[in-house]
Fold:
Amino acid sequence: MLMLDMYDGIRSFCGGRPHEGPHVKGSAAAIENRRRLPVNSKASQGTLLGVRSRIVGNALNKGEPVSRNVLTWTASTQGSPKTPEIELEAINIEVANLQVSASELKTESRGMSVLASELLANAIELDERLVAWTRSIPDEWVPHCIWSPETTPPSICEAGLYQEHCTIHKSIWVADTLNGHSCSRIKIGLVILACLKHVDSPPADVTRMNALTTIQDLADSVCASVPYHLGDRVEAGRIDDKSVQYPRIKGHATPDEYYVTAAAYGGMFLMKRLVELLQLGSLLRIGQRQWILGQMARIKKIYLAGPA
Structure:
């Protein structure tokens, strides 16, 4: 079911339609129906965590709350190691639910300032926890920023390089986790901006400027990861094509296995992140929206989905 959801996500992106996630809903229903059975094996716990991750991701993207049933699944995964991904997901559940609470600011007519103040405090606290998460990740997860033409082939620059630099990561999965973290902080920043419209206090202007700067910096960081995901690929090709150029750290070659993993997952992981960035609208830099649209069209071409 999770593989079907991945496929449906690609089709939704290429078709320009929302990803409803019916297969994730089916997986969640199957888990609920077998809740009385033990979840002791690594395979069972891995499946449960995979489904939970998709549910949380969908909730973040759609502005929906995370079901209480999903919250109780944590007790079934006590034997699983607490990886950075799982720790981030726990925070993201709260981010998703905060988004839902913040949506009330658009409809609530009375007590707006009180609600906004409460949500603002919650948003700032969640953002601090997300920042703290970056200080707890393994050292090898910290991305390398590459500026040198020597390690960024001209073909990559022509295919899609934003602001003359890019980042290199430990793996494609680490890169997506960090991009997911950036998108979560962007969502928190949007909540902060929404709250400040109803809060009248002297530090509001400073908080607003900090939120806008943070949102832009995070959007830039996602854009900087595009070359690592796609290399200089601009059209469909063999999954093991080693003629594809990727940015690299000086003195290091691209690992053989990366050609396959990047071709298999790079575009798929980027799809949802770039769509999220587009939702920022006027908060993006001048020309950034057009650049993102160009990269989305490039991904569709790679997946033989035709022009954007």
Notes: The beta strands are 144-146, 166-168. The longest helix spans residues 112-136.
